[in-house]
Amino acid sequence: MSHDHDHDAITEGEQISxxxxxxxxxxxxxxxxxxxxxxxxxxxxxxxxxxxxTGGSKLVAKAWVDPDFKARLLENGVEACKEVGIDWRDPTxxxxxxxxxxxxxxxxxxxxHNVIVCTLCSCYPRPVLGMSPEWYRTPNYRRRLVRxxxxxxxxxxxxxxxxxxxxxxxxxxxSRFMVMPMRPEGTEDWSEEQLAAIVTRDTMIGxxxxxxxxxxxxxxx
Amino acid sequence: MSERRFSIGxxxxxxxxxxxxxxxxxxxxxxxxxxxxxxxxxxxxxxxEAWGRDxxxxxxxxxxxxxxxxxxxxWPGYTGADGDTLETEVSERWLEPA
Lengths: 221, 98
Prior knowledge:
A: Nitrile Hydratase, Chain A; 2 domains; two-stranded parallel ribbon; 4 strands; 11% strand; B: mainly beta; 5-stranded antiparallel β-sheet; globular
């Protein structure tokens, strides 16, 4: 070995699924047919993968400080997104990089904690949260969250008393969801920008709660 | 199909129907009863969309609904709290009045 740390050989991945094979075949055919070039594909992928959860954080922070915006966001997610510069229909007209354009924001309350999953595959509100984390797409999370939600949340470090309803939302059709967590105490005089920093990806999936001490860029030791 | 067969608040049971080929109606919801909590617009059903019949001219368009189930009704021996719920989205053909 040419380097000194110990790990298994890095491979392409142990399992190539039928979908991987299908994607490669269709992509190569489309490139041969001239529908798009390999570079078009690469640039699209680079762009799609560069979208992070910043848009979602902005939506939540703005809703926390502006009750009128919050009402608009809960009423019509797709329209309200345009106010922070996110157009679910851009650039393809059908909602790419998500596959659809019905977007619903789920408001947490002291009585209800929302959490999202796609039991069928990996549906996720990509225009506002970017690409989903790897664990979100695993059969482990998908199968167990609907069946044992409190146990799965506990594995993420979250526990709720029995009088809080855990409401699991399965993105199994056309709608896409994002959780709006509750604004934590101690942030009363914070700016929208400060607030957005603590609205991390996992708080909008519903497997974490925002913590004034905790941003995605700087977790407490 | 423009008339909606169900309204918000209706109790509905998901049909335990055969699913040859593609469907988005999960097995774990079949035969389960819940309440309609949201309307969704009419869309081409996934059973047609999967075969490329994905326009209003070529595929069957139906209203969709968000159905909320009590987790206690959903799973035998559910270990969470009585109030816990699960919501899924279902096309009209899969629902019948409870």
